[in-house]
Design brief:
single chain; alpha/beta; Rossmann fold; 6-stranded mixed sheet; 4-stranded antiparallel sheet; globular; ABC transporter ATP-binding protein; P-loop_NTPase; nucleotide-binding
């Protein structure tokens, strides 16, 4: 059941030189819900995720987390509040084994500071099993894995440690259909079990429709619409709505250009 507000993004802007990546973005995520952020490549999705996770700072605007304004100086600030992220580039270290990647920055040690490998291996297997991914051996180096299994390692790491908000930037991009549906199913369970929030970033309308309770569509750095999934009958309905809104915006832009 959807609960209280967890994150509010208020009028967030971000530029890279003369390129404006985000233009006054507003968004809300509540406990117990999956919010899909849908858009094409270059729409601004990854930039927004990096701001929410502390990797970038906005030029203007504000993040409000659990009712309080926050300003992250680094990703560690976001992690301290229970925010974890699966980046599009995965952020895995290829020459480390699977279990060490899952516990990256969260290493389990004894009182003398030595790694407790047996515990990390056992928990790494549990993290992978939870999302329905079969891993041949958690001792193997990540560089030996397929793109889909590397994706699974990043997803398992984030879902294992996320306490309040999970940010997933194209988490199903390199997975086959069965693996993608298993990850989506686990995300739905994760939200309910932990009463957490998820932002599920994707360009795939079918995956967005399957995963989300609410859907935001972003294009050229602007949120063009927000819809609850129960207001849409199918992914095709979502696609037609997007096409209509994009067409209307393009007409407005042509009109403004002609006026100028």
């Amino acid at each position: 059941m959807v609960g209280e507000e967890l994150l509010r993004v208020v009028d967030v802007w971000k530029s890279y030189g003369t390129v404006v990546a985000l233009r006054g973005v507003n968004m809300v995520v509540r406990r117990g819900e999956v919010v899909a952020l849908l858009g094409d490549n270059g729409a601004g999705k990854s930039t927004l995720i990096k701001i929410i996770s502390g990797y970038l700072r906005p030029d203007r605007g504000q993040l409000i987390f659990e009712g309080k304004p926050v300003r992250f100086k680094s990703p560690l600030d976001a992690k301290a509040l229970g925010i974890e992220v699966v980046h599009q580039d995965l952020a895995v270290i290829l020459d480390l084994p699977v279990y060490r990647n899952i516990f990256l920055t969260h290493e389990v040690t004894n009182k003398l500071g030595f790694l407790k490998d047996d515990i990390m291996k056992e928990e790494a297997k549990k993290a992978l099993d939870a999302i329905g991914i079969t891993m041949p051996d958690v001792d193997v180096k990540v560089e030996s894995l397929s793109g889909g299994l590397r994706q699974a390692v990043a997803v398992a790491r984030a879902t294992y440690f996320a306490k309040k908000l999970l940010l997933m930037d194209e988490p199903t991009a390199n997975l086959n259909l069965v693996e993608a549906l298993e990850v989506i199913d686990y995300i739905r369970k994760f939200v309910k079990e932990r009463n957490a929030g998820v932002i599920f970033v994707t360009h795939n309308m079918i995956h967005a429709f399957a995963a989300a309770d609410r859907i935001y569509f972003i294009d050229k750095g602007r949120i063009l619409f927000e819809r609850r999934k129960d207001e849409l009958s199918s992914p095709d309905d979502l696609e037609m709505l997007i096409e209509k809104i994009v067409e209307e915006r393009e007409k407005e832009e042509r009109y403004e250009y002609q006026k100028a």
